[in-house]
């Protein structure tokens, strides 16, 4: 893989996936923001929530990167990495079409993480409403495990990296791409949701993601 281009791809996936983030995580981000203790700094806690979420994404990247590293060390060939690269970009294409409102196929992939989320959700409920700084960070970390096709697509890149550290860095690039939208969602929830749910913006963002996936596949072939 070309690491620089992959970092850029994942950052774009997180950023242009903002329309999906608003639909999927925007409600949670707004709800968490409304539950923050009034005696603590609101902006600081919103940042802390997102730092917890980013920490979980990086942890996921480290885990799947390590799995890929073990797999590649057992079978020293390129076919596994190439297969994961193709799968990641096909999923990226499907997500782009979903963001554009042209297909719902990508939503089926989010079912993969539901068993894990069912186990984590009761823990999240015990931390709500947020009453302290540690609880705020904990809620953010649990939030990072919410089933999400965007996260799964980024995770495939991390898995295909064949390296734990590289996988963590890939997920960090993706997380940084999501950060502007979800930070703004916590602060300007109503205004941002209205903007990003406009049909023209969803279509443009989705087609950009899908077009980038097609380009990546064409370059490989």
Automatic annotation (TrEMBL):
Lineage: Bacteria, Pseudomonadati, Pseudomonadota, Betaproteobacteria, Neisseriales
Protein name: Urease accessory protein UreH-like transmembrane domain-containing protein
Classification via Pfam families: DsbD_2
Transmembrane segments: 6-34, 54-72, 84-106, 127-147, 167-188, 200-219
Keyword Endoplasmic reticulum: no
Keywords: Membrane, Transmembrane, Transmembrane helix
Top-rank lineage group of the source organism: Bacteria
Span of domain Urease accessory protein UreH-like transmembrane: 9-210
Entry keyword Transmembrane: yes
Database matches in InterPro entries: UreH-like_TM_dom
């Amino acid at each position: 893989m070309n690491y620089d281009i992959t970092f850029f791809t994942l950052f774009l996936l997180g950023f242009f996936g903002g329309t999906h983030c608003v639909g999927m995580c925007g409600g949670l981000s707004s709800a968490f923001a409304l539950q923050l203790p009034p005696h603590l700094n609101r902006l600081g806690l919103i940042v802390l929530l997102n730092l917890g979420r980013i920490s979980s994404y990086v942890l996921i990247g480290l885990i799947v990167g390590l799995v890929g590293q073990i797999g590649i060390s057992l079978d020293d060939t390129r076919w596994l990495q190439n297969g994961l690269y193709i799968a990641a970009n096909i999923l990226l294409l499907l997500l782009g079409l979903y963001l554009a409102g042209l297909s719902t196929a990508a939503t089926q992939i989010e079912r993969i993480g539901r068993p894990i989320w069912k186990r984590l959700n009761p823990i999240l409920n015990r931390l709500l409403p947020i009453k302290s700084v540690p609880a705020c960070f904990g809620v953010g970390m649990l939030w990072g495990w919410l089933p999400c096709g965007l996260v799964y697509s980024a995770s495939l890149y991390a898995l295909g990296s064949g390296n734990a550290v590289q996988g963590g860095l890939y997920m960090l690039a993706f997380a940084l791409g999501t950060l502007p939208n979800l930070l703004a969602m916590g602060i300007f929830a109503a205004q941002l949701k209205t903007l990003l749910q406009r049909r023209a913006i969803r279509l443009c963002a989705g087609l950009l993601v899908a077009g980038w996936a097609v380009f990546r596949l064409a370059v490989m072939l």
